[in-house]
Amino acid sequence: MFITRSDLNKNLYAEIIDAITRKEPGREEYGIRAAEEKVKSYLAGKYDLDCIFSKAGDERNFMIVDTVANIALYIIADVLEQMPVTIQNAYENSMEYLKDLQAGKAMLVGVPEPTDPDTGEPDTYIRYGQPDNRY
């Protein structure tokens, strides 16, 4: 997995995650995997997903680590009767960031865009229903 339990602990106390996962074993792993897939679905066709998600430790893009962690915490905490405001706000901010990345209003620094395997040039094909705005 791209992020680990320690990446989640920065935003939410470990005791809260433990309490949730005691009631629902596997909830933590499910939240992390679902969050990774959600982020990948927003970045697909715009960025090289293998390049982003194959990194480990300090080589990972901090903005993507933070975004995946915020979304994972939201998914994990969704079983609570009331969502903590800090988790809700972090989730909403992360989703806005992903939408900005997808729309080209923001960029991931140091992450290559996908290239055409035949030419090595930036891939200008329409992928996943999202037209590329490069002409």
List its salient traits.
6 helices; 135 residues; mainly alpha
Question: How does this model look, in words?
Answer:
By secondary structure, this protein is an all-alpha fold. The protein has one domain (5-103). 53% of the residues lie in helices and 0% in strands. It has 6 helices and no strands. It has helices spanning 5-9, 14-23, 27-43, 49-53, 62-77, 85-103. Helix 3 packs across helix 5 (62-77) and helix 5 packs across helix 6 (85-103).
Topology of this protein?
Elements: H1 5-9, H2 14-23, H3 27-43, H4 49-53, H5 62-77, H6 85-103
Helix pairs in contact: 3-5, 5-6
Compact summary:
By secondary structure, the chain is an all-alpha fold. It has one domain.
Beta-strand fraction estimate: under 5%
Mean pLDDT: 83
The ordered H/E elements are: HHHHHH
Radius of gyration, CA atoms, in whole angstroms = 16 Å
The profile of the biggest β sheet is: none
